[in-house]
Fold these 2 entries.
Entry 1:
Amino acid sequence: MMLSVDEALQKLLAGLPVSGTERVPLAEANGRVLAEDLAAPFDSPRFDNSSMDGFAVRSADVHGASRQKPKSLLVAGDIPAGKSASTTLQPGHSMRIMTGAAMPAGADAVVPVEDTDAHALANGALPAVVQVYTQVSAGGYVRPAGQDFTSGQQLLAAGTRLRPQELALCAMLGQGELLVHRKPRIAIFSSGDELLPPGEKLQAGKIYETNSFTLSGLVQSAGGEAHLLGTAKDTLADVKTHLDAAVESGADLILSSAGVSVGSFDFVRDAVESDGRIDAWKVNMRPGKPFTFGQYKNVPFVGLPGNPASAFVGFEVFLRAALHAMGGVRGWQRQAVRARLMETVESDGRESYLRVLIHVNPREWQVYLTGHQGSGNLYSLVQAQALLRMPAGVKKIRAKSLVDVWPL
Amino acid sequence: MMLSVDEALQKLLAGLPVSGTERVPLAEANGRVLAEDLAAPFDSPRFDNSSMDGFAVRSADVHGASRQKPKSLLVAGDIPAGKSASTTLQPGHSMRIMTGAAMPAGADAVVPVEDTDAHALANGALPAVVQVYTQVSAGGYVRPAGQDFTSGQQLLAAGTRLRPQELALCAMLGQGELLVHRKPRIAIFSSGDELLPPGEKLQAGKIYETNSFTLSGLVQSAGGEAHLLGTAKDTLADVKTHLDAAVESGADLILSSAGVSVGSFDFVRDAVESDGRIDAWKVNMRPGKPFTFGQYKNVPFVGLPGNPASAFVGFEVFLRAALHAMGGVRGWQRQAVRARLMETVESDGRESYLRVLIHVNPREWQVYLTGHQGSGNLYSLVQAQALLRMPAGVKKIRAKSLVDVWPL
C-alpha cells in the first residue's frame, strides 16, 4: 500500500521519541528548545522609570511653564541609572534622573533635559536650581511598571525553540540557566557500491557521495546533531555493520540514503528487517517515492532515496518536522508563502515538489521553475530559492495561479 | 547631521574589511562562504546511465514487443551500480543494468524490470534469456550525460553562502576541501551601571543585562563568531578596558550596546574617541535612533542603543548586512515578503520597524501589531513573527495596504 504524504508523516511522527532534558547556561541556549514553562517573577519594568534623561517633577508644579515664563524648581537629588531615590519628592522640588532610572516617590512626570536650562551631560555637575521651559502631563515620559509584562504572566511555554529574542527575555527574567531538550542525535550513512568520498580519485562507473553532506547540514539546521558513519557497500553484512554502529553511537534516529538502484535499497531493507521492522516503504510523492521508515533494534530508522534531489525533498517533507518533534518543539509548522506561478507546470498526480526561483515584484512573489526537475539533478536544486508544492491529485497548475512555496 | 537608514548603511559597509580565507574539510563547510569560483570538471551525469533497474537493449530489437508477443533477448552481461560493461551490446542481446549504472556501448534504451519476465531483485541470479513485454523508444529510461551540468560550466561563484544543497554540489564535483572566508569575529560588550548578569540576585534599581545574549545569537545567525566581554561600568576607564580587551582578542568588529541612558552612551563615545573616531551617532529611524559607528584603534566599532528592541532592530537593519559583507558574501539581500496590513499604523516620519504577527490566509499573509511597540518592551518582540518596515517620511499606513515585512 502506498501512503499519502500526510499519512506517512503522521505515522512517522507517532513512532518518534522526544529527547530528554538538560540544564545549559543561557549563553549556550541559542537554537535549543525550552523544556519548562517560564512565567514572569516580577513586573517589567519592575518600577516606574524615566524614558528620558531629565528631571523628575510633580506635574502640578510645572503647569503653565514656557520659555517665556519658566518655572523654577530646587534640585533635591540625582538618580543615575541603577540607583533609586531614598526620599520622597517634595512640592516645588525636582530630582535629576537618567533614562531607565526609578521614579522617586512623589514625582509623576519627567521634564526632558532639553526642555530645561540644565546641561545635557549626565556626568555634569548637579545644579542647585533648574528652570523648566514646558509643562508636562501626569505620566509624561514615565514608563510605568508592568508595561511590558506583569508578575505571574506566562511568557514562554515548554516546546519553544529559543531565538536570540527569547534568550533576551530569559535574561530579563534573571535566568542564568535553562532547562532545554537534548539535541536529537541522528546517525547518517549512505549505501551503494558506486559511491566514492569527495577528494578521492574518480574511477570509471563511480560517482561521488553527496547525501551525507546534504543531510548533516539539514539535520543541524533543524536542531539535531549529525553523526556521520560513511558509506556502506551493497552487502547485507556491511549495511548491518553500519546500522549496528549507529545503534552503538547512541543515535536517536538512524538516517540512511540508499544507492539510487532499487537493488541497493533491497540490502538496506533486508538488513533493517533482520533485527527490526519496516513500517512503510513508498509514499505517493515526487520526487522521493521510495521513502522508508521503521525500526532497527528499537531505534527509529528512516531510509531516503539516493538521488540527491529526492533525498533533499524527503528531508524537507518528513525529517524537518520529525527533528523538531524529537527535539521537543510543540506545534511546529512550516511557514509557507503564497506566490504567483508564472508558467504552467505539470506532474503525474503524485504530491509534487518543484524547484523554483523567486522574483519579488511590488505586489507579490512570482515563481519560475529552475530547470530540469529530474531527481538526480542537483544544480537545479542549488539554483532554487523555494520548493513549490503541488497537492496530490493535481496534474496541472496553470500560469498565473496562486501557489504555496517553501523558501529554502 | 542625522543620517537616513540607507546613508548610514552605505557608510558603515564602506568601512568594513572582508575576512581572509582558509581551507576547510567539506563536512565542516556548512554555512560558510565560498572564496573561490567552482566550475564543473566533468559532465553530470558523467556518462549516459539507466534511470531504472532493468535491461539495456537496442530499441530496434524490442520494436513491437507486447505481453502477447514478447521479444526474447539473450542476457549477455550484468552491470551493477558502480561498474561499466567492457563489451559492446550486440544485436539481439541485452544486459541487466541497475539504476545509475553506465549504459553499455551499443545500447540506446532500458526496459524496466517490471516490463520483463525477470525477477525484480537485483541480487537474483542472472537469467540466460529475458522476455521483453514492451517496446521502448531510443533514449527511453536513459539519463543522458550532461543533463545536470556540463564540463567547464560555472556552477558556484565566490561569495556564495553554502547551504546543504551547495555542499552536495561541491561533493558531486569531488571537492574534499573548500576555500572559504574566515568567520568574522565580533567582540560584544554592554555598558551601564544598572546591568546585572542573569543568575545573580536582583538589587533595587538594577535590571538584568539582555543584549549580549540577543547579539551573540544574532551574530551566529549571520555567520559570525561572537566573543563575549561582559558589562562595562559607566566610567571612561572601564569602557576603555573593554574596548582594549576587544582589540586584543583579535576582533574584526567591536559591538557595544550602551546603557539606556544618554549619559551612559557618552562614556562610550568618549572612550572610542580617545583613540579612534566616531563617524555617525544618530540615524533617522525608530526604534534605534542612537546608532553609532566609527573605529577604535583601527578596529571598526558599532554602538547600538541599550533598549532591547532598539538593539535588535539595529542589528537587523545594519549588522546583519555588515556581517554578510565582512564574511565575504556578495550581493546579500534580505528576502522581504509582501503582506496585507490589517490595522492602521502610525509613526513620526522616521523609518520605522514595527513588530507584527502573521496570519496566513489562502491568498496572502495578513499582519497585525503584537502590542506595545516601546523600545524597552521585549515581550512584544518575542511574540513578533516579522518586522514591518515603514519608509522614512510615512506617518500613517492605512489598514488593507500592502506592506513589506521581514520574517524573523
Entry 2:
Amino acid sequence: MNAQSLSDTAAKISSYIHRTPILTSRLINNIAGAEIYFKCENFQRMGAFKMRGATHAILQLSDEQKAKGVVTHSSGNYAQALSLAAQSLGITAYIVMPSNAPQVKKDAVIDYGGHIIECPPTHKDREETAKRIQLEKGATFLHPYNDHNVILGQGTAALELLEDHPDLTHIFAPVGGGGLIAGTSLAAHYFGTNCTVIGGEPFEVDDAYRALQSGTLEINETTDTAADGLKMPLGDLTFPIIQQYVSEIIRVDEEEIVSAMRLIWERMKIIIEPSCAVPLAALLREKERFQDQKIGMILSGGNVDLSNLPF
Amino acid sequence: MNAQSLSDTAAKISSYIHRTPILTSRLINNIAGAEIYFKCENFQRMGAFKMRGATHAILQLSDEQKAKGVVTHSSGNYAQALSLAAQSLGITAYIVMPSNAPQVKKDAVIDYGGHIIECPPTHKDREETAKRIQLEKGATFLHPYNDHNVILGQGTAALELLEDHPDLTHIFAPVGGGGLIAGTSLAAHYFGTNCTVIGGEPFEVDDAYRALQSGTLEINETTDTAADGLKMPLGDLTFPIIQQYVSEIIRVDEEEIVSAMRLIWERMKIIIEPSCAVPLAALLREKERFQDQKIGMILSGGNVDLSNLPF
C-alpha cells in the first residue's frame, strides 16, 4: 500500500460514493482553540464512511467472484454498506445477522437490497453461517475492516480532506476495528505535510490504546459504551499499520462522548452517531496541546436510532 | 419593494450572514416524485433565517438610532437573531422575555450578547415593557416580521436559491407571521421564471389559510402544534404581499409534521426544528400535483430542544 494505491482506490470508487462536504464551526473552533475541518462522512451514501471500503473491496473481485456474490456478518453500518455497494454494482450481498438484531437494522439492509440470513446470536453460529454461505453460494467473504482493500477505501476520506486542506497539522479519527484510522494514517503519511494522526477511543473499549503499549493485539473485557460502532477489536492487518503510522490514541469517557455528540448536534445542526463524536471528545479532552493547530476531524457516520438517544 | 430593493438588501447583509448550502436527497426525491432543492437556513448563523431580517432591519437605522440600541419582545428565534445581529454590528439589543421563558432560551440570548428584560407572562405586560424600554433607552422597536426591512431580509434566502437554480417551478416555505413567505414570494416574483410560491401551515394555526379565503386577517383560537415557530398570526404588512404573490397554502396535521421532520433527520442527517418540516409535509401531502417538478424548499431553522423531541 502506497501513495499510488491510495490514489487508484479514490479514482476507482469515485463514481459510487459522494465526495462529502467539509464543514467548519466558528463556535467549536472557539471552544477548542483550534481550527477544525470536519469531513462529513455522515453525509456519505448509507450514512457512513464504510461505503468507501465496501465499494473498493467489491471492485477488486474478479468477474467470476462478482457473479457469485459477497457475504459478511454484521448488524451495523458495514451490513448496510456492503448491501448498497453490491446493489450499486449489480451483484448479490448475503448478510449474516443475529436473529435478535433490531428490526430497524434488518429493514435498512433490505432497503439497500441485501439478502439477510439469520442465525442464532452467538459468535460461533455467525462464523459457521457465513462459512456455509461461502460454500453453498460460492460467495466471497469480505471482512468489515481487516482487509487491505477496505483499509485503502476508508483512507480516501482523509485523502479528500488533504486534497482540500494540504496543510493540516493533525487528523483525528475514531478507533474501532481500525480500518478507518489505518487508512487515514496511510493517507496522512503519503499525502500530508508532517500531518500527525491521532485516534479517539472510548475507555470502555480501549484495546487499541493497550495494544500500542503492549505491542500485541489486546481484547476488550467490557464493551459498555454508547459508541457502539467502536466495540470491535483491532485486526492483525489494521494493527501493524496503526503501530507504524498513528502517533497516539487518546481515550475518552462516556460523558465526554455524549457531550461532544450533543455539541455537534446543537451547534452544527448535523446528525452524527455516538462513535462519530469520539475524536472530537478526544481533542477537547487534551485541547491545551492543540492550540492554534489546523485539525482535520473525520466524522464517521450519522446512523442513529432517534428513538433511543443518549440525551 | 422591488427587484432592486431585494438585490440591495442581499448586498448589504452579505458580510453578516452565511450563504447557506443547498442540499438534495435522492431518497426524498424518490418519495416525493419531484426534484427538491433544500435551502438550509438551519445552517444560518444562530440557526435560522431570522438572522437575515434582523440584520437588515438594524442596518437601515440611522447612526443616532443605532447608538441607542434596539428592542423587541420574543422568546424564540427572533430574540436570538436580533441579539446576534446587534452584537455583530456593535449595538445594544434589549430583549423583553416572559419570566417563565425556558432557561435554555434565555441562555442563548445572553450567549449572543442580548440584554434580557423579564416581564410577567402576559401580552399586555410584554407590550408595556417594550414601550418602557423605548422611552427609557431611546431604543428602536423592531418587529419580528411585520416590517418591510425584515421581509426583504428574509427574502434573500429565496433570492440565493434562485441565483443557483433559476428554473425552479415552485418554492415551498412555512407560514407563521408571514415574514419569510412574504419575502420568498417577492424573490420568486422578481427573480423566478414562472416560479409559484406555496405555503405550508399547520391545521392548528391556520390563520393564513383562512385569511386568504376571507380576505381579512384572522386569529388562531388554538395553537396546539409542535411547530412552535408558526404560532404568530399574519401581520398587516405581510398579509397583502402574501395575498398578491403566494399561490396557495397547504395545511398539514401534526403527524405529517413530525413524520416529515423525522424523514429529514434520518435521511439527510441534518437537524431541523418542527416548524421547518411543515413545507415538506405540505408537499408530501399533495405530491401527486407536483410530480417531476423542480422545487425549492426553504428549511427555516434548526433550533430544537434535544431533551424534548416529538419522537
